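Record 1 of the preview.
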Amino acid sequence: MDFEIVVCGAGPAGSTAAYHAARGGASVLIIDRKEHPGIPVCCAEGVSRSMIKGLVELDPDWISTRLQGGRVIAGDETVEINYPKVGFILDRERFDLGLLRRAISAGAEFIVGEITSITEDHLIINGKKIHFQIPILADGVESRLARMLGFDTGLDLSQVHSCAQFLITGIDHPQDRVSFILDREMIPGGYGWVFPKGEGRFNFGLGITPTLSEKSALECLLSLKERYFPEAEVLKLSGGVVPAKVLKIEKSGLFLIGDAGRLTDPISGGGIANAIRSGWLAGRYAARMVKGKADIRGYYRELRRVVLDEIRFHERIRSIFLKLKNEDFIELVRVLKKIYQDRKVDDINSKELVFKILRISPRLFRIGLRLLI
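->
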């Protein structure tokens, strides 16, 4: 079997890449270990509207909740942010399967199996050899296939968020807003979240930096639940590891997209939008490369502009975040009140927001100055 492009992994990044590569006229094969990608769900399922605008059209059946804003909580301080265009909470099972079906409809083929070996021009799956011109690797955190191809994808514990999440019901919380909880003692090196899933259900979870915590993510989550939602009924538990340090992808010579390239946001841990963005770029560039109309250096330039520059800026902000104490979080929420309280927000630019916060708060400015210079 011969294909021009093989996409390894059928999550949001892989299926998006396969769709655009097939639309670009290439012969495309998608491979995944599971027949139904996205199951089990190990994700808070939130995605920013602005970050995926123009890249993917969401089927209404893929959306659990259309968000109208959010709140940030630190100690006794809370700021409400009215942000009607902020984004969505997805149904990841339907979303992932829908993206895969869309790629197949565009002409990509799909097979299920375990890749046992891979080289620069072929792989072995289910005992069969498949030749290709270009591989696109979307096989998740610490990409096993990238390691087979000689690129180190190992992670240090200081470079990850360890996450735990309950699907809960029976709580008093808005159905169209997310909540973020900041507490250095209860959530070391991370934050908690409440994301409405509709029908009275919520994703309630947290991510911590393991090297800063004596407790596991699950132990921290149980304590957080006892404090905020002791009466909540737990319907399901999920968890996982989310990278907080992007790979030096440009040195790999490979298409490493989504979690395989560690293209998750170092602050929020969100990965869906960057999976879509990197898949969109990779699929389009790979289709042009098989026709001799582009090279991977052009892809890396675009990836830096669209994804990597923002991630690397957020890595610097995370270095500040990890130093903040509870009194700093309270100060942060007070500053956010000055910026957003009782106002309708149309857009939030992270870089502009950071510098606005540092201008308003001398306390946070001093912390940021020490770490950013």
